[in-house]
């Protein structure tokens, strides 16, 4: 299919889409009528191909673009491949992220830098190359990043994660200002505790149910209200719509425990 034909339908890239929040976002945007490029690390290629099949079953075009978001060369190549195969990049969802639970006094520099590399540099590179492509295309776009409620309030055992998610908020606000003249909005989502592979643990069955091990580790009560990845997908669905053109530079809470 030619690029001219492909560009008639909006195309989204979703990173970290093999599972969890990224998977939910990819499927929701496909339901909304977008064609989807799903990204994750190469070891998850089989999972990505399953997501591609699910999206194609919905009648949308989909491709897998395995890449390490911490690598500038790979992110640049990912965007180029999506343009080559699907014709355009209209939405970037920089969702990929990692979490390491560790007291700051017990944290190694290597662990700290790993979290920062994925959660900050990875988002920055996706923002950078998506924005450059959208400016080149000249018809605007939507850029969305993964922050967290931990990017608005510090938490024990999560110093690196919190710092990285605070950084995403600043990055999002700054790029939003820079993109004002290009009809490109830049926003971030800030969910609380969700039931995802990142927050689940093999000991959950004996500790009290889904995400119980994570909640106990960070000192939250087992009665804490939990969300599903669908709540994030629903917000992203709105932010990519034409009527969301007036929303930019925002880091939006999805957390019943946080009101500031």
Please describe what this structure looks like.
The protein is an alpha/beta fold. It folds into two domains: 3-192 and 227-254, NAD(P)-binding Rossmann-like Domain (Rossmann fold, 3-Layer(aba) Sandwich); 195-226, no CATH class. The protein contains nine helices and seven strands. The chain has helices spanning 3-6, 20-31, 45-57, 72-86, 109-137, 159-178, 204-207, 212-218, 229-239, and strands spanning 11-14, 35-38, 62-64, 91-94, 141-146, 184-191, 251-254. It has a seven-stranded parallel β-sheet, sandwiched between helices. Helix 6 (159-178) links the parallel strand 5 (141-146) and strand 6 (184-191). Helix 2 (20-31) packs across helix 9 (229-239) and helix 5 (109-137) packs parallel to helix 6 (159-178). The longest helix is centred in the middle third of the chain and has 29 residues, at 109-137. The termini are far apart. Mean pLDDT is 89; it is low at 1-7.
Summarize the structure.
It is built from nine helices and seven strands, in the order αβαβαβαβαβαβαααβ. The chain is an alpha/beta fold.
Strand-and-helix sequence, N→C? Answer: HEHEHEHEHEHEHHHE
| Top-tier CATH class of the largest domain | Alpha Beta
Within CATH, the superfamily of the largest domain carries the name NAD(P)-binding Rossmann-like Domain
Compute the gyration radius: what is it?
18 Å
Pfam family, one: adh_short
Keywords: NADP
Protein name: NAD-binding protein
GO molecular function, one term: quinone binding
